[in-house]
From TrEMBL, chains A, B, C, D:
InterPro entries: Homeodomain-like_sf (IPR009057), HTH-type_TetR-like_transc_reg (IPR050109), HTH_TetR (IPR001647), KstR2_TetR_C (IPR041490), Tet_transcr_reg_TetR-rel_C_sf (IPR036271). One of its GO terms (molecular function) is DNA-binding transcription factor activity. Pfam families: TetR_C_24 (PF17932), TetR_N (PF00440). PROSITE patterns: HTH_TETR_2. This is TetR family transcriptional regulator. Residues 4-64 form the HTH tetR-type domain. The keyword Nucleus does not apply. Residues 27-46 bind DNA. The keyword Coiled coil applies. It comes from the Bacteria. Keywords: Coiled coil, DNA-binding. PANTHER family: HTH-TYPE TRANSCRIPTIONAL REGULATOR RUTR, NUCLEOID OCCLUSION FACTOR SLMA.
Length: 189, 189, 189, 189
DNA sequence: CATGAATGAGAATTCATTCAT
DNA sequence: TATGAATGAATTCTCATTCAT
């Protein structure tokens, strides 16, 4: 709702702590300290600890959506390129805005029902992008299988990277994306 | 350590609660109630809340290892069959022993360092099985790509199923496994 | 560390309860009630139950040190007078600040190692005062014996008074002190 | 009451733990373990944790009484020798049966009222011995002062030794006793 | 006598949240 | 906006004691 720059900064710091410690284990005092204020003051910026979680996830998902849309808008219409672009965009957000996304992926269950309902829309919008890209690739014969299953598998493989990918290692996120796309395309020759 | 049948039963119930509520949100009182004892009695069977978590994960991982080994032992030596078998075994454990596995996948971070070290060995042993299967498939030209990346992608896609797969839906876990294998094999013709 | 007047008052009340019930038997709830706050609020002022104990003992020992130093500074240089002064000062603190001292004497073992180390310094400083006084008395031929033993015996006799002395009885603390000094001086004639 | 040799052994072990940890901090489980049985079994030997404490103190006080009586019976009738003998006997029991005595001295408050009443008699009997010895010494002009105060001071000085005396150091308990007696006798020349 | 499992009444401590200043 | 003190409900864990076997 409120999107003051201060609040945005606080959200960023909260994301980091939520990733490090998990939502439940992150105390309001830890959040406040990280933000350089006292715990009482936090409640001037956020109604709730819940609201902080929602802010983190909303921020992350919204960014992902923007980046993906922009990337798709800017790239060629070729299905293979679009697939690759989407995979790259996904990993790019996942690692530039990693904290928010890890929170979105692994603390979703901690959201209260209202927030969950609100944010589900955003999440669905993002997944819808994927479905169109997958559909096009299927239609073009680039890949085979059930559209639903394929998109789930691909998203799973991509999301799971947060568990093992080391950004300081030799491979770039773009490499990863390309490898995944290559893996599921029968014959890129 | 201690493996009384009572403890095993308690572990199973704990897994269920951990999945429903998350580890941090599951109180020892909830655990005790589910087990039909009083919270004080819990500490006869487990030293700690932590130890319950470790027991759940150990149990689950050990089962997965046993099932996968047995399945591989019993199946033919053909790389494609082995790959399919491994994927099926993975999903089978994931859904027959779902609770333990969801806990293992999503509450791993809540383990204390010692338990984590201990259980890492088990986890590694399991992943090693995957790597051999993937290696064979690569060598046989069934699939292409980096062995490390491929196994990570496949495991990610499979593990992520716990987030969306509905066992009461039209597809069986074996279907899922077959579809995934088909997806990554260039040309099964 | 923190020496807010509030904390000082709380420390005083804690000392009383620790004497009445013993440290281990005094619950934080009892402490809080005596202080007119709720148990949770206690931890705003003290990190720990341990810290309360340490505060009580520190407060008491510091007072004893100040009183003894001042008394010695103000009295004549005559060894006998100094000895009597020190004994009187000891009993004076022992009975004006009785609670803190009883805690210091009988709950010392309940301190955790760090607090013990910290407070040992204070205690040593106080005992050092005694040793100089005893040394002077020995040198002047007022008393005889090993300086170490004599000071231990004298301190023992004085400290033990908290076990039997009744402040409402006929004798004043100063009487006690004088009697003790008389007892150990061969011939005051 | 019951004085089986087994019970006596258990009492000895309990005394040790009570000294090491303090009565309140010694759990029934610790006691049982030290005794090589399980905590449930302890209650076949003692009705209560309280009863163990009472047994420890009773045992110790009774021994002190026996030793002191025997020592006085065997020594000459000379008041100075009797005084020295009593002091030596006190320290001897204090250090051969140290644990029981430290418990008696420092955990007395933890006794419940009945046990306290019962054991007070024993304690009084022991102190009565002291008073006769002190009286004789006063009458003989060996020492001066109020009989009550003198005996309190002497007992205090002796009891306090458990706080600082190192049995492995150069001085024997008998040395200590002699030094104390010398200290309070005007002119032993 | 011994045991192991269970109990239930606390114990210390934590923590999101409130609110007067 | 910020703070610091307070709250109260909840949390993990402890422990003397009981009792069926």
């Amino acid at each position: 709702m409120n999107a003051s720059p201060r609040r945005k900064e606080l959200t960023r710091l909260a994301a980091q702590l939520f990733v490090q410690e998990g939502f439940d284990r992150t105390t309001v005092r830890m959040l406040a300290q990280e933000m350089g204020i006292k715990s009482g003051s936090l409640f001037h910026h956020f109604k709730d600890k819940q609201e902080i979680l929602a802010a983190v996830i909303e921020e992350g998902t919204q960014n992902a959506l923007i980046i993906a849309r922009k990337a798709l808008d800017e790239c060629a219409a070729d299905p293979e390129i679009r697939l690759r672009t989407m995979a790259r965009a996904h990993l790019e957000t996942l690692f530039t805005d990693r904290n928010a996304h890890v929170v979105a992926l692994f603390e979703w269950r901690r959201l209260d029902p209202e927030a969950r309902a609100h944010l589900s829309h955003l999440r669905d919008a993002y997944e819808a992008l994927w479905v169109t890209v997958i559909d096009d690739a299927l239609e073009a014969g680039l890949i085979r299988g059930d559209r639903f299953l394929v998109s789930r598998f691909v998203l799973g493989a991509l999301n799971w990277t947060v568990r093992w990918y080391d950004p300081n290692g030799p491979r770039s996120p773009d490499d990863l994306a390309d490898e995944l796309v290559a893996m599921i395309m029968p014959a890129s020759t």
